[in-house]
Every structure is written in structure tokens, then in C-alpha cells.
Specification:
The structure is a single chain. The chain has 504 residues and is mainly α. It has 2 domains: 227 residues, no CATH class; 244 residues, no CATH class. It has 22 helices and no strands. The longest helix is centred in the N-terminal third of the chain and has 58 residues.
Length: 504
């Protein structure tokens, strides 16, 4: 469960918005279609940026080699931990409050939110840098410091973009995310061609985030202030109501990263390099569930406040879509892992293909787990989520520590996949235990199982190129899913042009 928290700023029940287009929109049937199309736009932009990033990663990994790739990925992973630990659930708090507050209250909240994100991120970067110096030495210590600077700029850009998310202007958000991804990839390729060392390469995130920050500031400057505020007393009122969930957010950031850190200290540099190549792919894939399901979260939150029947309906439909897409991602990763690793790292990273194939299961399970997480968040069950996330973190740590000595990087991947699969099942049980009426029908499960079994048959055709097998698996899986009528009707309605819907 990785979604952010939604909570009133000053405690108690969420305040009803005074007025505004965002409120009107989220209360209408149009919100669902906009969320689906907006999520699709963000996914499309992300996939486009990922293609460019994969090309850059292929150039980078060949340039760095197995050992330096492990160091590079470890530095970025530690920087990502800072993002998770310093978010404190404030991202979604910002989305909700910016959607409902008006006038001076909205201005004050926006300035406080920006100020607290800057301070917390700076403290987090300093702490993780000290850890890196003591744990890994001066080279990686400076590397983490540089990567942390990128995290600081990126968090600032993300915070300024929250008004766009709050008003479902997801197309603009998609464009800004694409700018950051493509810029980062281009900087990496340019530095590799220039023969740069490890430290300059770790600085590309900062430069790319600056290029996204500038247009973001220009777009939102008329709707929120760009100057942060540093009122500690107001910060306490802002953070206090979400403190429990903040710890849960911190725990959730470690799900995949704890495995990488454990591999880095328990295995050889080559095993770390193999796991790092797999992690690089998985790191991109785990963003997808949040992009798709996160677009529906404002609808979840509004329905939880106003209409529990609508919430149950929304969770059920989103679960069906998430299940279909999650199984497809697992299938595509399993079939295409050798191709992906060959593109990213070349022949030297070939053992990483088996690691990636196993981690694909974890990514697929995450699609479903995120749905239950957002459902629990919409009900403000923060303590439940804290217990759930910390339990899952302990589970994945125990499994990875136990399996690394048996099978190195592959053992770590099995541990992560097992923990995530258990989490997807336990999340449904947890949600249903607290709100039985929110338990969705599982009619989609046998249909996607049949589709996945048939879709996996191209994997047996060893004479075909890997990419061809992935395409065939996708076509077969999609055809069977459609033939069995697994997708909800709302999905067809959202993607069908208006003129065709009128004709129908």
C-alpha cells in the first residue's frame, strides 16, 4: 500500500468546501471519465519518457559496468528513501486542501506546505548523506549528497504542481513529468559521451527537475504563492493530524529499497549489479499503479464523505481495471525480462533477467494493493495502514535476509515478490474487515487467470525473438480478456469518442 494520506488540516472530519469547480466536478459523473482519461494521459507520458530513459539506461549501464552501476543505483535509491520519509503524507493533504480552500486560507496553506517540504527534504538529505559516508565511504557519500540535491528540486516541483492534480488537470501534469524524464535521459547520454564520472551522472536529476520546475512555477503562479512560509506553529497543526500515517508512508518507501540496501551489504558487488539492473526496471514500473489508481483517489475521498455506496462502486471498478493491468504487467515482464536486461545492460547483466522476472510478480501485486490502500485512506484508517505497512516491511525484511544467503539477488527478488503478493491479499481482507460493504466481487480474477495462462504460451516458443514473444503474449492476453468481458463497461465509455457514444 503506497498511496498518500488524506486528512483534515486541523483534525476532525474533513471540512466541506465552500464552493468551486473542483468540488462540483468531483461530485458529478464526469469525474470518473476525467480521472480515467487523465490517468491514461499520465501513463502515456510516463511510458514515452520511460522509452527514452531505457535508452539512456542502456548507454549508462554499459558505460559504468556492473560494479559502478551498483553504486550509482544505490545512491539514487537512498535519495528516493528521502522522498518517502519526508513526504509525511503531505502530498495528498495538499491535493485535498488546495481543492477546497479559498482566499487567504488557501494562500497560507500553500506557503506552509512548500516551506515544510523544503525543510524536511533538506534534513532528510543531510541525514542520508551522513549514513552514506559512514556505510559506503566518501565516493558514495558525495554521490548521495548530489542525488539528494536532485530530490530537493524535484520535491519542490511536485509540491508546486499539486493544484493541477487537485483540479484534475492531469494533462498538464503529464507534460511536466515527461519534460523531467526526457531531460534526465538526455543529460545522462550527454555526460556519458563526454566521459563523465559517477558524481556528475548523479546530478542529472537535479538539472532535469529544474527544467520541469520553471514551467510549473509559471503555470501555477496565479493560483498559489511561490514563496514558502516557515511558521512552525502552523506546521504543527498541518502535520499533527497525519502523523500516524506519516510513519506508514515512511515504511512503505522501503518495500523495494530495503531489498536493494540488504543486497548491497550481504552479497558481492556483482550480485548487487544484477539486482540493480532489475531494480532499475522495477523502479519505473512501480510508478504506474499510482498514476492509474491515484487519479481516482479524489473521487474515493469525496464518496467516503458523502456516499458509501458510490465508494463501493468506485473501488470495485478500479479494482477490476487494476487487476487486469497488474496481471498483464507481470506477464509482460516475465516473458520480456531477457530482452529488457539485454537492452539496459547487455550480455554482462544476463543473470539479472531471472531476478527481473520474479520482481514482475511484485509489481503486478502492487496494482491491486494500491486500490485497497486508497480505500483505507479514504476512510481515514491511518492506524490500520500503519500497522499494515510496518508488518509488511518486517515481512519483506525477514524474507530477504533469509533468502539472500541461499540465492543472492534472486533470493532477494523472491522475498519481495512473496511479501507483495501476501500484501495484496491481506489488503483486501483488511478493507473488508472494517467495511464489509466495500468488498468487491472477484468475478474478474478467474478471467484474468485464464487470459494469463493463454497469454504465457508464446514463452514456450523459444525460437522467436523476446520482443516478438512479448507482443504475442500481450495480444493473446488482451484478446482473451476482452472476449471474457473482464473490463468494466465504464472503461469502454471513458475511452470511446463522444460521437460514437451518441451514435450508439
Amino acid at each position: 500500500m503506497r498511496p498518500e494520506a488524506v486528512e483534515p488540516v486541523a483534525g476532525g472530519e474533513p471540512s466541506a468546501p465552500e464552493s468551486g469547480a473542483a468540488e462540483d466536478l468531483l461530485s458529478t459523473s464526469r469525474a470518473g471519465s476525467l480521472a480515467i482519461r487523465g490517468g491514461a494521459l499520465r501513463l502515456g507520458a510516463f511510458l514515452g519518457g520511460t522509452v527514452v530513459s531505457v535508452v539512456a539506461a542502456a548507454v549508462l549501464f554499459r558505460y559504468l559496468g556492473v560494479v559502478r552501476t551498483g553504486r550509482y543505483t544505490t545512491a539514487l535509491a537512498l535519495g528516493a528513501v528521502v522522498t518517502g520519509f519526508t513526504d509525511l503524507g503531505l502530498t495528498t493533504v495538499g491535493i485535498r486542501e488546495l481543492a477546497v480552500l479559498e482566499g487567504s486560507k488557501r494562500t497560507e496553506f500553500a506557503r506552509d506546505l512548500l516551506g515544510i517540504r523544503l525543510v524536511l527534504t533538506s534534513i532528510g538529505v543531510a541525514a542520508i548523506t551522513l549514513f552514506a559516508f559512514f556505510a559506503y565511504g566518501s565516493l558514495l557519500g558525495f554521490g548521495v549528497l548530489i542525488a539528494g540535491a536532485g530530490v530537493l528540486v524535484q520535491n519542490t516541483q511536485v509540491t508546486l504542481a499539486l493544484p493541477l492534480l487537485a483540479t484534475l488537470r492531469l494533462g498538464l501534469v503529464a507534460l511536466l513529468e515527461l519534460i523531467r524524464q526526457v531531460s534526465n535521459a538526455l543529460f545522462i547520454v550527454a555526460l556519458v559521451l563526454a566521459g563523465a564520472g559517477l558524481l556528475p551522472l548523479l546530478g542529472t536529476v537535479a538539472f532535469a527537475s529544474v527544467l520541469a520546475l520553471i514551467p510549473t512555477a509559471r503555470i501555477v503562479r496565479t493560483s498559489i504563492p511561490l514563496i514558502p512560509a516557515f511558521g512552525v506553529s502552523r506546521w504543527r497543526a498541518l502535520v499533527g493530524p497525519v502523523l500516524t500515517y506519516s510513519i506508514a508512508v515512511a515504511a512503505s518507501t522501503l518495500y523495494f529499497r530495503i531489498a536493494l540496501v540488504l543486497v548491497s551489504v550481504m552479497t558481492s558487488s556483482h550480485e548487487l549489479g544484477y539486482f540493480s539492473a532489475s531494480y532499475r526496471v522495477v523502479e519505473g514500473l512501480i510508478v504506474i499503479p499510482g498514476l492509474l489508481v491515484g487519479g481516482a483517489f479524489p473521487i474515493f475521498a469525496r464518496a467516503a464523505r458523502d456516499d458509501m455506496e458510490r465508494l463501493a462502486y468506485a473501488i470495485a471498478r478500479v479494482f477490476e481495471v487494476a487487476c487486469i493491468l497488474g496481471v498483464w504487467v507481470s506477464l509482460a515482464v516475465a516473458v520480456g525480462a531477457p530482452f529488457a536486461i539485454r537492452v539496459i545492460g547487455g550480455a554482462h547483466f544476463a543473470p539479472a533477467a531471472k531476478v527481473l522476472a520474479v520482481q514482475g510478480i511484485a509489481v503486478g501485486a502492487m496494482f491491486v494493493g494500491v486500490v485497497w490502500g486508497y480505500g483505507l485512506l479514504s476512510l481515514h484508517l491511518h492506524r490500520v495502514i500503519l500497522l499494515f505497512n510496518t508488518s509488511l516491511l518486517v515481512l519483506v525484511t525477514v524474507l530477504v535476509v533469509a533468502l539472500i544467503p541461499l540465492d543472492g539477488a534472486q533470493g532477494a527478488a523472491i522475498g519481495v515478490a512473496t511479501a507483495e503478493s501476501i500484501g495484496a491479499i491481506a489488503g483486501l481482507i483488511t478493507l473488508a474487515r472494517h467495511r464489509a460493504e466495500l468488498r468487491p466481487r472477484l468475478r474478474v480474477l478467474p478471467r484474468v487467470v485464464v487470459a494469463a495462462a493463454l497469454g504465457a504460451t508464446p514463452a514456450l516458443a523459444t525460437g522467436l525473438p523476446d520482443i516478438v514473444r512479448v507482443v504475442l503474449a500481450t495480444i493473446i492476453y488482451g484478446a482473451v480478456v476482452i472476449a471474457l468481458k473482464a473490463p468494466p463497461a465504464e472503461l469502454y465509455d471513458a475511452v470511446t469518442p463522444k460521437r460514437l457514444r451518441r451514435a450508439g
